[in-house]
Amino acid sequence: MSRRTRLAADATSGAEPAALEKSEFEALADFRYQLRRFLRFSELLTRRHGVTNLQYLLLLQVKGFPGREWANIGELAERLQAHQHGVVSLVSRCEKLGLVERRPGREDRRAVEVHLTAAGEHLVARIAEGHRRELKGLEHVFPQVARQLK
Questions:
Q1: pTM of the model
Q2: In the sheet where 112-116 sits, what is the strand order?
Q3: Which positions ≥6 away from 93 have C-beta within 8 Å?
């Protein structure tokens, strides 16, 4: 069972939720507000750079994949919490824009590796810089992430 499926099952299990205090509702509400503000900032930033937020997220996940400079479709589907066929379409759209390229797998030639092109590298770096600045300003909300950014 995937993490998304487990979370949905937990939310609909019918178990009686633990009582929350007013301060906990306020903390949850503020966190969601700050998160939504960041996501809205991200949507506007990516649009100004001529891509959708989802296209940027694909580029970011390829660039930020742990331990290597590429990812396969299944890995990207997990990282984007999307279906594989949707990720294939997303990769195709990014490929048409010249941001990514597909290469045969190194170990399994049937597998497909998704790599950033030079244009994709440049774009993801520019957009990520804007995100870094915005996240540094939200250090009180996302302290662990902000500490990792320079």
A1: 0.82
A2: 70-72, 112-116, 100-104
A3: 55
